[in-house]
Design goal:
The chain is mainly alpha-helical. It has a single domain (about 1-285), classed as Rhopdopsin 7-helix transmembrane proteins (Up-down Bundle). It contains eleven helices and two strands. It has helices at about 1-40, 50-80, 85-120, 120-125, 125-150, 170-205, 215-245, 250-260, 265-280, 280-285, 290-324; strands at about 150-155, 160-165. Strands 1-2 form a two-stranded antiparallel sheet. Helix 1 runs parallel beside helix 9 (about 265-280) and helix 3 (about 85-120) runs parallel beside helix 6.
């Protein structure tokens, strides 16, 4: 009896932590990406290629919060699936589409930065190529998500109706998870890494007169690659170890797996932070947007009111020290 109570308590703790993490992720993804979109809409340089890709990435990541994270939060509240077979397939399909889109728009951005450095003379007139990269990213996401329309169904699981996927044998789960890992992690990570390698090689080999600003692009691509790997690795590695039976299916491990799976959208919260880090004009543009204008200006005014006090205090200390 004591063991059963302890297991139930541990599971409740993990569920509470997961629920909190999902809400924090949802708020962070929506607020950060909405802020980036608002800033880009207000900036005078929003028609630049870099801003175009940042905008597309922020839109994809915003959809991750609204379409992927929020329905999962609702599912945690209701526990049972109440929306029927059609919505089951539709929601799971759209969730997969936005997750893939967030990843492959990031890949498109990396390819574009690589193109900007390797072909600087032809870069300015390649807007059609930029749009083609974004369209391709969404088309790839849709194609990769189509199997979910077939595999997901509403069925009874432990006495409650759930939107469920059942592949049957462990071997099928191993193949499925391996394919998912390749499509959403391995292939994008290798592409981004290849773009970074080409950028670095080009910077080293071309003259300084041709590449004055690309080091910023290099650092941005490197940071995005590293953050992408850090955000996705726990989810991919744990799930692969689980389906290949390297992690025993204990109650605690199942709870940990559920918690780690809730971290899958973490990269969508990190992307806007990286974009702001390497694009200071986004922060500057936020000062024109309410309520950021009020918050930032209030912080600035409070610091300015403290400045005269600090100045008088410094002058007094100098006067005292001179008398000594």
């Amino acid at each position: 009896m004591a063991i059963r109570v302890r297991i139930t308590l541990h599971f409740f703790i993990f569920q509470s932590i997961q629920f909190t993490v999902m809400w924090v992720l949802f708020v962070a993804i929506v607020v950060l990406n909405a802020s980036v979109i608002a800033a880009l809409l207000c900036t005078n340089a929003r028609k630049s290629r870099m801003n175009f890709f940042i905008m597309q990435l922020a839109i994809a990541d915003l959809f991750v919060g609204l379409i992927y994270v929020f329905p999962d939060i609702i599912q945690k509240i209701t526990i049972a699936w109440l929306a029927g077979e059609f919505m089951c397939k539709t929601v799971k399909f759209l969730q997969a589409v936005v997750m893939y889109a967030s990843t492959y728009v990031l890949v498109a951005l990396s390819i574009d930065r690589c193109d900007a450095i390797t072909n600087p003379m032809n870069f300015s007139g390649s807007w059609n190529r930029a749009r083609a990269l974004i369209v391709s990213a969404w088309l790839i996401s849709i194609v990769f998500s189509i199997p979910l329309l077939i595999l997901y169904e509403v069925k009874e699981v432990q006495g409650q109706m759930q939107c469920w996927i059942d592949l049957g044998t462990p071997r099928r789960w191993q193949i499925w998870m391996s394919l998912i890992s390749i499509m959403i992690f391995v292939l994008p990570a290798l592409t981004i890494a290849a773009c970074y390698a080409v950028i670095v090689l080009t910077i080293w080999t071309k003259s300084k007169a041709v590449v004055m600003s690309p080091p910023i692009n290099s650092r941005r691509t490197k940071t995005m690659r590293n953050v992408f790997v850090l955000c996705w690795s726990p989810y991919i590695v744990f799930d692969l170890l689980q389906v290949y039976d390297h992690i025993p299916p204990t109650q605690n491990n199942l709870a940990i797996a559920t918690l780690i799976q809730s971290l899958a959208p973490l990269n969508s919260a990190a992307n806007p932070l990286i974009c702001c880090m390497f694009s200071p004009h986004i922060y500057t543009s936020l000062r024109r947007v309410a309520p950021y204008k009020w918050i930032l200006n209030r912080g600035r005014s409070s610091s300015m009111t403290r400045a005269p006090v600090d100045t008088r205090r410094t002058q007094l200390l100098v006067l005292v020290s001179s008398r000594d």
